[in-house]
Write a structure and sequence with these properties.
Low-confidence stretches: 4-8, 14-36
Structural class: alpha+beta
Strand content: 15-25%
Mean pLDDT: 85
Length: 340
Amino acid sequence: MDEPVVVRDAVPNAVPNNRDVSRVTPSATPKRAQRAPSRKRDTLRYLRAGAIWTALPVRDQRLLLWLLQADVVTAQLAALLVYGQLRTAQRRLARLSEYGLVAGFWAAGVQRPRGRYAYVLTTAARVDIERLVWPDGRAQRAIALPASPPIHQLASHDLLAAFLTRADASRGEGLVAWIPERPAGELFGGYVRPDAIAGVRVGGRAIVLFIERDLGTERGEVLPAKIRRYRSLFGGRSPLALSVGFVVESGRRERSIQNQLRPSPTGPRMLTITAERLAADPIGAHWADGLTSIPTRGLEAFGDTDASVLTAGCLADPDTLAAFDDRAAQAMSVLRPHLR
C-alpha cells in the first residue's frame, strides 16, 4: 500500500478542522448575529495546501515541489521520478486532483494531435506551496515569464525521462542537473529562454548543455534571432565551454537548422540532433554542427564534478530538488558571470 490508513484518513479529517469554529458571523451590531453562508459539500476542493501538507505522503510533497518549477507532468513521468509504478502514479495524481492540488487535462496540439493526459498545479495550490517554500517571500522575485504550451513542455520532459532511464551511475554518466524552462529563462532575465539546461556528468567531467526543443513551428526570423541572442549573451574573445543543442523532429528539420548555424570561433557551440537519436542513447548520441559530429560525452567540459547522477526515482532523495531549480545553475561556474 502506498498510503497508510493514518495518512489516508488525515486529509479527510482535516476538513472539519478547516471549517469555521462557529457558523455564526457577528455583524457590527452584536445583537444582529446571523448564520454564515453554507459551504459546499465537497470541501476538499476548498482546502488550503498548507492545511493538509503534513498529512500528504512524502512522495506527493516532492512531486508537488518539482511541479513548482517544471509546471506539467504525466503519470508516466511521475512514476519515473518518484512513484515507481505507473498504477501508483495514476492513483496518487487522481487523489491530488480530488484534493484540489492538481488539475488534470488533455494536452494536444498540431504536432501531437493525439495528445496525452497531464497534470498541473492549481493556481491556489501554487500560491500556497510557494508560501511554504518561501515563508518570508522570495529574496528576489523572478520576472513572470509566460509558459510554453503544455505539449511543448512535455516534449522537453520526454528528454529528461530518456536521460533518467538510461543513466549509468556506476560509470558516472548521466544528468546531475536539469533546470526546466521557466526557471531556466528567469536565470537570464528572459533574454534567452532555453527549454531546459542540462548539467551532464561524464566520468569526472561536467558539461553544460542548453536544450532547445524544436517542434517545427518556429518560422521566419524566430530561429535566427534566438541564435543571435545566445551568441550575444555568451560571446567573447574565445570559445565558451557550453553547448546549445536543437532537438528536432526529423532529419529534414535538422538540415534546415544547420543551414542557419554558421560556425563561430567564439561563444557557445551550436548543435542539432533528432529527438529519436537522443532518446535512444542520451550520452552516446552524436550531435552535428554541419561540419563535424560529436557524442554528448565528447562535448567540451567546463570543469570537474563528483555530483551524483540522477536516475529513476531520483525525487526519493530530498536533496535532489536542488538539481531542478536555480540552485543548480550556481554550481555551474561557466554560467555564473551571465546570471541575472
